[in-house]
């Protein structure tokens, strides 16, 4: 049997090109490689860790489903589902909590960052975020998890957790490996020291942005002193980020991009970059506009995915309970 692969995206608003180049584009390529049994889900339980409006949630969940399908996730090849529809995710997280030392969770960079950013709402869900993530992965025996760099620490914790659990109760969980792209950490367009993030929309380029908006945002993106199109993250963090974006969309290495713009300045490079992004996103945007009109069909895809994922996860949670002596009937 092929190894399993899983990943998820939170429904918290529009996806940006960091989400795309760091994860979604990779999901599609890995799916099409036909090397894995793929699961892609909408991490709606994780999205409750930040302030939200329940009225907006259904639309946000549907939007991630539309983004998946528009980017090329094919329900005939991958199982697409909604996390909260599979009770085993929450159940396993509650179980794994007992084997997750609070000291390890306190060290998580994302927990520390988010605790600062939302100081008025430092909740248990935020603290427990990596344990729920481990549950998402363990339930499907996933060996590979395509994510951006900001999630690697969470997966390291999952590996530790799997090892600890297996040592204590016998082999139960796989140790999942992160799968990163070259574009594993796309930086903000207005500050190359900060990660591109939905929480700072000013520095984001969204997958739904119109061509004119893309041209404008790329034109305004900060650059470094000098004029050479050269990837040097230390001394030229801004232009290096733009080169990585270009390379990501073109499936080229940063060296090839450097060569292409060897005798050109930032202006020419930025113009070409904007057109490259527009060209690359056009099929996605076109497909999304079509799919928006077919939301009933998209919901059917999710319902079918929920059923299939539920069966796999349901079996696994029973296996876990058995290992722990929780099955008396
Ligand atoms: P989320 O929705 O915050 O992010 C979705 C994916 O986008 C990646 N990403 C980036 N990659 C490159 N550059 C950026 N600036 C950038 N910003 C975000 C993230 O690393 C992520 O891969 N916790 C996950 C969701 C999740 C999950 C899981 C993933 C829940 N359970 C189990 C894998 C396995 C998250 O960060 O989603």
In short:
By secondary structure, the protein is an alpha/beta fold.
Mean of pLDDT? 97
Profile the largest sheet: 5 strands, parallel
Question: In terms of structural class, how would the helical and strand content be classed?
Answer: alpha/beta
* Overall spatial form: globular
Query: Strand order across the biggest sheet?
Result: 3-2-1-4-5
Strand content: 5-15%
- What order do the SSEs take from the amino end to the carboxyl end, as H and E? EHEHEHHHHEHEHHHHH
Distinct bound molecules: tryptophanyl-5'AMP
Number of strands: 5
The low-confidence runs, each spanning 5 or more residues with pLDDT under 50, are none
How far is the first residue's CA from the last residue's CA?
Answer: 31 Å
Task: Characterize the structure shown.
With 329 residues, the protein is of the alpha/beta class. The chain has twelve helices and five strands. The protein has helices spanning 17-33, 57-71, 87-96, 102-106, 109-117, 124-138, 152-169, 211-220, 237-250, 254-260, 266-292, 295-323; strands at residues 4-9, 37-42, 78-82, 142-146, 177-179. The protein has a five-stranded parallel beta sheet with strand order 3-2-1-4-5, sandwiched between helices. It is globular and about 75 Å long. The model has no long low-confidence stretch (mean pLDDT 97). Residues 6-10, 18-19, 22-23, 43, 46, 133, 136-137, 145, 147-148, 150-151, 184-186, 195-196 line the site of tryptophanyl-5'AMP (TYM). Tryptophanyl-5'AMP binds next to strand 1, helix 1 and helix 6.
How are the secondary structure elements laid out?
Elements: E1 4-9, H1 17-33, E2 37-42, H2 57-71, E3 78-82, H3 87-96, H4 102-106, H5 109-117, H6 124-138, E4 142-146, H7 152-169, E5 177-179, H8 211-220, H9 237-250, H10 254-260, H11 266-292, H12 295-323
Parallel strand pairs: 1-2, 1-4, 2-3, 4-5
